[in-house]
Structures are given as structure tokens and as C-alpha cells.
Amino acid sequence: MQSTPHALVQSSMHLDNGQDARMPVLAAALAHRRLVNDNAALRLMRADLLPVVAAVLGEYLGAPGARVSVDEMHERLSAELDEVRDHFDLGNKSAKAYCDDWRDAGLIIRRPALQARGETYELSSEARDALRIVEQLDSPQTTVTESRLVALMAAVHRLALETDTDVTRRLDALMVERAHIDREIERISGGDVEVLDDRRATERLADILLQAQGLPADFARVRARFEELNQELRAGILAVDEVQSTVLDDIFRGVDLIESSDEGRTFTAFSSLLRDPEQSSRLDADVTDILDRDFAQGLEPGSRRALRGLVRDLKNGSREVHGVLTDFARGLRRYVYSQEFQRDRVLRVALQEALAAALPASVRSRPFTEIGRELELSAMGWNSVGEVVPHDPSEFDAGESLVEVQTHAVDFAALAVIARETEIDYDELTRNVNDVVRSRGPSTVAEVLNVHEATQGLASVVGLLSLAARFGRVDRDRREQIAWTGAADKHRRTAEIVVHRFTETVPA
Fold first, then answer.
1. Which of 112, 279, 381, 421 has the CA that lies 20 to 30 A from 160?
2. Is 291 part of a structural domain of the chain?
3. Is 279 within 8 Å of 273 (Cβ atoms)?
């Protein structure tokens, strides 16, 4: 049977449509392949040692804001590996080697310690995503919860309302909401109070905690993006051939370039909401009320701790990202002001000139082609034997013979006294702050000093201000008088400071 021209056209159209249909699949497959190769979370999910890696990282670094010193991590992991090797084929790698592998894979990040010397490990945002996936697979949500549907509908309605430019429709929607609220007020005033049953309340709380689990990864992701923007900005500063004053104008133009990015604006909006005293206090009070409810008494200890620490974790994460942003801004300013900026720009120009000069030669010569010239190494040579200075052991003579010192028992109380003379006793200050906050609620530094004397004088005052700056709130628009007794001369002193308020207990 012969095909008609119409049939041939139809057949051709079907073929073309099939090819077009397959191309998006191919493009998506290629994109997914790049994602699998580049994304640390997916690399971990297909790793042979996923059970061990997930267990180790979850145990040591899984908590919000968790950081472990490098030495402690190596020591603890080394002890764990001795037991794990009995059940898993781990080879003979050391704990440090495993940590190096995880760092290279983008699972952990090694940073300078914030409050001490040395370095610490922390989870990357991709690793947190992977651990959340493992946890959700281990304890899956078996049903579509009512709370998720309610939250979804509320979010959709709010988005539709707040993006509507029609004044009449927005007023009508608000009138409907007001009528609903009026009916609720009338119903409750009449004694008809509907309370969620324990099952539904527990279900909604589980959804809240599930959302909260993603916050540490979000904070880590924002920090990582800020670091990328910082590097991009530094590279951009070197790339432009402008004078220093022009570069400074770019950095100091009201808002830092990093803060004006999409990530910066989004985080600023979140942080502003969290720092709002009314919003923060309301959230804190709501959490306290929930924990006092009857249904919350049957929660697992882990869920209670997560809910109790929700506000604290939010504030700590926000404060840490703000600190990173501030450090970047200061670093950029120092970089531009310093000679380092000028040196890097000169080095960049020199490298560009060298590359430009090498380009014509690369057409004729390969990297290992003989060029007929020998270049002297930059090692220092000797021109005279007199330049050689022999080692004289007498110069390193201690002057006295070594003697064996007899060991004796150490008086811990005496050591504690010596330590207090040189270090701020933060343990004592933490106990004092928590005692006042638990008994009186949110308290200022002055109120803490009124209850507990500054036993170390000015050092105690400085320590309280440091704790308040880290775990409290600073109200720069208000001031207060503080008083303390000097540790050495016992003279009474007073000072006027910006109000530092402890809104919650300080972590011990």
C-alpha cells in the first residue's frame, strides 16, 4: 500500500515530535548527572559507607550549631573506628584520613574556632540535607497530615492576597477574615471553646519540629553562599582597572554588596523578624505554653529539647551568620585599605602580561620542549668556606645540670585561685546569670550585679557584658548604671553602660 503525501507529512510530524519530546529528557538526564557528581549530599547517599558516615556525622555534628575541635574529633573517631571495623570493611585508614576525605567531599567544613585557639569541624549544608533524608527514610511520615494541609492553604491564601493589586478584592478578603474572627470571638465568649485533641496537637507539633530540622542546613547554606559572594567580590575588585577611591565607593555605598544580594536581603528579612522584641517574645511565650500543655507531657525527651531550644537555636544561627557577614565586610574594608590589595593587583597585572607573552610561544613549543637555555635555581650558594658557621654546643648550654624533681600532690583549690587571677570565671558568671533569670525573668547586667557581687571586680563585669553580647540582647538606645567592687583595692566603682539584657538562661 502506497503512502499518501498527507500520511507522509503526518508520519514526519510524529517523528519530529518524538525527537523533541526526547530532548528534554536527555537534557534533564545530563543535568541530573552533573548534580549527582557535584552535589555532596547525593554523593554521600550513594557511598558504600553511608551507614558509618551518617552515624558518625549525626552523632558528633548533627545537633544545631554543633562544632567539635579537630583534635577531639580525631580522638573520638579513632576510638569509634576500633569497634566499627568489627562490622564494616573500613580498611586501615586513620581517623584523620577519614575526616580529610569527608572534608574533600564537601561533607564537613574546617574553620578556625570562634572562642578558642585551633580549628573545628562542622557539617556542611549538603551533609545536613543528606542526614535529614536518612532520618526521614528511617522514620517516614506515613500519612498526609491535617496540619500540612492547613499550613499550605493558609500560605496560598496569604500569597494570593498580598500579591493582589485590586483594592476592592483585598478589602473584601479582609472583611471576610474580620467576619470570621468576629464569629470566633462571639462563640468563645459564649463558652464554646474548641480545643484540639491530643492526636491532632501532637501531629501539628511533629510538623513544626520537622520544619525546624531544616533550619541548621539553611543557615549553613546562607553562610556558604556569603563566602562565595565574598570571594567573587574580591576577585571583582582585582579585575576592574579602577582607582582605589572608586573601589571604596563600591564597597561603602550605604549597604554592603553582600548584604544587597538576594541571599542577603532574604536573610536580613528573616533576621529582622527574629530580632523584633515583640515577635521574639511572642514566639518564646508560645513555646513555653505548648510545653505546659497536657499533650506535650507525653513527648519524647528529644522532641521536648528540640522545641525548648527552638528560639535559642534560631537566635544563635542568625547571630552567627550576622557575625560572618560583619567579618566579611570588615575584611573587605581592610583588604582595600591595605597594601595587600595593591600587591595583589600588581601581581595580577604581572601574571596577565606573562600569560600574554607565553601565548605566542605556546603555538611553537609544548610545555616540555627544550628551549636551549638553562635557568638557575633560586637556591642560595656558598661563595666562601668562611660563610659556613659550625655548630657550637656551648652556646646552647643551660648553665646548670638537670635535676630530677620529686612529684607531689597538687592542691586543686590553690590552682583554682591562680586560675581566677588570670582568667575570667565564666562558670561562676553563667551560674549567677541563670539564677537571676530563673527567679526574676529577663534581667540586665546591672540587675545581675545587684544580686551577685562581682567577685573578680572589673573582670566579672567584662565577663557579664561578653555573655550578654553573645546570648542576650543589647539595647543601644538605653543606658543603665552598674556598680562593683575592685578585686585588688576593694574600692567601690560605678559606670554607665549600654543596656545588656539576658532574655534567657545561658548555656552551661
1. 279
2. yes
3. yes
